[in-house]
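The pair is quoted verbatim underneath.

:::
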Amino acid sequence: MGSSDGGRLTTDTEGEKRSPGGPFFWAMFLTGWAVLLFGAWTMLREPDRTKPLYSFALALGSNIAHDALLAPVVCLVGIALARLSPRSMRAPITLGLFATGVVLAIAYAPLRGLGLREDNPTVLPLNYTTATLTVLGVVWALVAGWSAIRIIRGRSQASPA
């Protein structure tokens, strides 16, 4: 958030507003572009193996899907969470939902069997459905425990000793 005049709240030691172009910013900016350009060069150098047109379509489609579907759904879930959950349970539920999203994003490829090869049975050898459900069970057990602790502490602080 900014100040009432539209500027930044953060200032340097002399009270002047900082610009976003410090050495760390530029180092990371240049590193990011170097990695991006190397990836593009590598992809275009071997088009038979990397399928640049498919990769471009996948990147474009993923961005559109994120902006048109995923981001609005996440925002609506956040609004519903803020309105429907008790204040003491918002943090555990929020982190539980975040962890669930991360777990499902990581588990997506193995759950779909992407990369599975019949000539190499050691690729994706495990039952990823069971593993994913186990991890999600642990996440939500931790959420339930954290919520219970917060509720118990809230009740003990509210009641006179």
